[in-house]
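Justification of resources, computational component.

The compute hours requested in this renewal are based largely on the per-chain cost of generating structure records like the one below. Each record pairs the submitted sequence with a full structure-token output. That output is archived, and it is also reused by downstream analysis tasks.
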Amino acid sequence: MVNGVDTSCSGGISDPPTLARAAVTGCGVDMVTRAELTALDALEGLSPVRCFSEWDLLEEAIVGVASGTAIPRESERMIRSTIPAEWHDLFLTKGGEPFPADIVDAAQAELDHLANVLAGIGVVVRRPDRVDWSARGGHTSAMPRDCLLVVGTSVIEAPMVWRSRQNETAAYRGLLADYAERGARWVSAPRTDPRRLESNTGRWAINDAAPAFDAADFIRVGRDIIGQLSHVTNRSGVAWLRNVLGPDYRVSLLDVDDPHAMHIDATVMPLRPGVILVNPTRAPDHVLDRSPLARWERIVVPHPRPPGRVPRYMTSGWINMNVLSVDYERVIVDPRDTDLARRLDRRGFDVTLVPFEHVNAIGGSFHCATLDVRRQGGRESYV
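The structure output for this chain reads:
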């Protein structure tokens, strides 16, 4: 334990970092050293970070860690803008305290199971450090997609406008250093005091005084990066990202119809070239018809998932949209989303069912809880 960070069973700070090549349980088994993987990368001529889409064959991913998750402490406007109404009082009065232990323990078991599933099909799985976030005024290490954006051979740290999430990438610092040493480009967006960005008027809970974005407000479609403005992403943040990515990428915004917008991956989700999963209330036809995705086939998810036995403290029923594509055909879905699974099956997708309701309770699902570090494929134009 170092400054609230448990470094005993992650690949982040141990020396040398280790990676799970096959099944992963707890701290992992079947390990290879960083030197061995670096040699493999050199032999293949690849950066350790390389990802251009949401659907090419997944080769390496970070799977989050739920242990240490805390209830985020945020401004009243931010809570009321982004958290389901029935849980406002909990977040406004208990912010900073540990999340209920039974929820966190069950979420950790679900994340470990997902890591096993991915490792079992040949994906290299890495895990962040375990952090006691209540001791550090933070939130969680369960959602790497929220704070890290991989585009091409770059991994970008998002500035994270929530007060409780400004230091979230501390859990990934060892992994990021490892990738950078092995040839990846590691970029950190500038951070500002979240209080400077707070807004009490207008559509969003933040203003445009400084760049702000969460990584999960963007999806990759080859040369096109598609995002949204939200309660955590502003125009200054989008402009900063455009500048960093340069002329090789086109960054465009969907004008989503969502008063609680925060993260685009429960609104639209590309599954393979020309096919996209769509939330019809947030991304109706007239929005998509004016977007780079106008000509793509739309698999519409007609309804959000109804409430279940586990409280969804931080997500709506549209969390059923938050699937993970392993490749062009294989998609990971929660077993409670039977209608969605059938729709995907009819379109020729191979659906893997993985229980994830406790992870949903702390703020995300399969897409949020993973970061695809490396996929096959290149930077192509699909629109």
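The chain has one domain: 5-37+47-375. Residues 330 and 350 are 5 Å apart (CA to CA).
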